[in-house]
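TL;DR need structure tokens for one chain.
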Amino acid sequence: MASNVNPTVRRRRLGQELRRLRELKGMTAEEVAERLLVSQSKISRLENGRRSISQRDVRDLCGVYEVEDQRIVDSLMQMAKDSRQQGWWHAFGDIPYSVYIGLETDAESLRVYEPQIITGLLQTRAYAEAIVQGGSPESSEQENDKRVEVRLRRQSRITAEQDPLRLWVVLDEAALHRVVGSRQVMREQLEHVLELSQLPHITVQVLPFEVGAHAGINGQYSILEFADAADSSVVYIEGVTSDLYLEKPHDVQKYTVMYEHLRAQSLNVEQSRRLLERLAKDYAR
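>> reply
TL;DR here they are.
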């Protein structure tokens, strides 16, 4: 469930407001950095919400932007304070994709294209364990266990009784044929996807092999959308050592159009379920 004070979302909103104040002042990020004797990259990270913002940072920036209304300054200072609180995921230590978890926790809807594996929110524990161990062979057992627990905890967003995350998943057929763990694990995993796909807020479509080249050929991505109009949509692309977050309207629009093409090229919901059922039975043999 989304918390009332989500530090990731608070940082994004605060960063957007600071960017707005800078633009109203007619200053570039480089000019602000020179005034404060900091790097331009710090100003950029503060504005895009990727870096924790201190109340001192807010005070200094409001000084540069000559914000005279103390109520505005106080409000931004409070947002900075809230943004430094910890989300549930911080209890698990250093999580590489903690920014994404914060966004997912507060998102209203999520569209995912997954070409290689069953997407994390739909994974069973056994499948998740096999994926984490296979993908991180040099990590300790304790570290891998932590990653699995975080992944399973994230799934509370789609099983919540009130305001569950609206999830639309396009799975490449390759993900259904790749044997992760064992055939028994795969059978249980596909049956789990089938069960979840019956929920009214979850849609699963399979992109069949016969489509050939398609709009998602370059790899996995997700599109997060939020209930609050102040929170812009985000395209998330997962990397090995770093992740990419795209928030510019034209970038989000391009990926949204690509996703519509993927949906159109995929099997419809009933056809996808029939394929999942057939493959689950095949794994049982």
